Sequence to fold (715 residues):
Amino acid sequence: MGQFKTITWLAGGISVLAVNAALAQDGDVFALDPVFVYGDRAASEAGQSANSVAVVDAQALDQSTITTYRDAFRTMANVQAGDFVESGFIIRGVNSEGQTPGGLGTPLASYYIDGVQQTVEGTRRGPRSVFDAEQLEVYRGPQSTLSGRSALAGAMYLRTRDPDFSRSGKAYVAYGENNRKSVGLAFGDQLAPNLAYRISGEYFSKDNDLNYPSYRRFDRYGEIATEEYWTLRGKLLWQPAGDDSTNVLLSYSHSYDSPIPDDVAGPSWSTASTGYDARRGDIWGTILPDFYTVAVSEFPAFQDVRKTTVDNVGLEVTHKISDSLTFTAQTGYSHSVTERHSINEGTAGEFLTVDGEFDQTLITQEFRLNHEEPGLRWVAGLYAGQEDQGAFRDATLPNFSTFMPENQYSRNSADLFNLAAFGEVAYEFAPSWTVIAGGRLDYFDQTQTASLTTNGVLTSQTSSSFSDTVFIPKIGLEYALANDDRVSLIYQEGYRPGGSGILAATGAAYTYDAETAKTLELSYRGRALEDRLRFAGNVFFQQWDNQQVEIGSYPDNYVANAGRSESYGAELELEYTASQRLSLYSSIGLLNTEFKDFSAGGINYAGLSFPNAPETTLALGARWGGDTGWFALGNVKFTGASMSRLENGVARPATLEAYTTVDASVGYAWDNGAKLTVYGTNLFDTEYFTYENGPGVLATLGDRREIGVRFDYTF
Fold:
């Protein structure tokens, strides 16, 4: 009998496959193990899913160059982080918050941790770490028929490590550039033959490498000079029947996250600006734009510092009714509180300040039945979600007409309820031919209120209610080739309700309509070279109607509807195991987006692409080494040029230039579970922008180089 060993396939972050390599005397023979997915409610294995899904497993998430879910995007096609801190993640050129980042209401793609759907603020600044995680999955394209509310653009799922019935643990310490310090510890064991637990904790801090000389005198300077994050997590697994026929999994986590802004002044910001190379982040300090210096030499009240705490509670019950039928009940509770202050708030003698908060609570409940047997697979379920959002902003700022102090108090709230019944069936009606049909009957009810009080006088108030019942269909056809390669063609739709708001600059109320999308997607999944080569391709076309788009930035931002827009593109992933110790991957994303019919604020945006939607993304990577001894990893990510955000009154926004980043690590692993790694992210310190106003006015810098060392111990 040959020797067995596990090899990790890194499919451009798209799929990570565990391969059992049996070494026969006449050569290497590889037999692929199935890859199980958590986010696809209609399939338990990646090979059964027609979705374009990126799956990164525990071994890949444990790399020194991947510490957050955003880091994992560097291995994926058509997936990237948002353009700055106050935004979500981007799938196929669409921000998870839609083209309306920051607005109250429903996002277009949601982030789930252990089945618990995160709030908008919790996704931005929440449990972002992937320490002690089993798997990260990013679903590209609509998931609206099966996933809960907010799945028109896609979904992301993080599964942390579940308890098991044997003692195990892991720990790490790391130190890198800019005084980066982090430490993590996880431990699990059984409490009884049918009861097990796992606990984990992580702390991270790092100094900001931008310059803020005019902010040093403020009490909150440390909040902008240092990034800080920590999380605590606990999970309890109970098997009342003494085996895995019934699992009751309770999870809880508490996190604190205070990321640093990366905005710097450009040469056109003011006559006092020394340009991007100076990396001046105190844009509302001594390099204030010339317009403001008429009355003041500094205006730090415009500089926000924010920190968020998130509490998550999840209860997942699974019960195998029979070999082919499984019942699942998933309860989720997420509460996030984001404090927002101007950097001078709380400092003695400062009276032009801003204080505020975002408070969001999301409670969800889902029940579903999954049936699997040869030739027939179906899922049916019920979903309910209740979200309460509240925000306030208390500011004392100068009136730019009189340059006298003016008190402004704004209040916003939203109450959102969603009830849905969903289902999908895949039936092999003829040899090799499978029809896929599904749908979701969704009921939405939401109420939004907003008010603005100026100098004690209510200057604006609005309240809107929106309710609707919609049916979201899905239909498709799949064909299995003789070599078990699979081709599928899927059509499905998506929907997001409308809403209202108040223009902060003037107090004027505005409303916007619901948006819909229709998507047609062709996918191909196959393998060759005795399963050493795996490939997957997806081609899609998406048509948007009444797409909700945010114009401008605070306080002039508002939401408008684009009459019609389109996006189309493709993802291609290749993965190749060259030998027992070397695996290679490539991931290519192509994307074209365009507003076909869109005018707002007297400007015709037709013909423009979506913001932050690069036409090309390319990832290349390799892993060399085994479980012990020397090892090395590398990843190259190319991101093509894209358009920056739509600015109020600007007909042609700035263009963000293409850029390439390189991550690499090398280390040595001992057979006692210890491992030492030297790593580098953005190894050549490529400077790139994720947002720019101007051009040359203001920009958000991408992640800079970090070189460090990390020690891991696993037992």
About this structure: The longest helix spans residues 120-124. Helices lie at 58-61, 69-72, 120-124, 221-225.
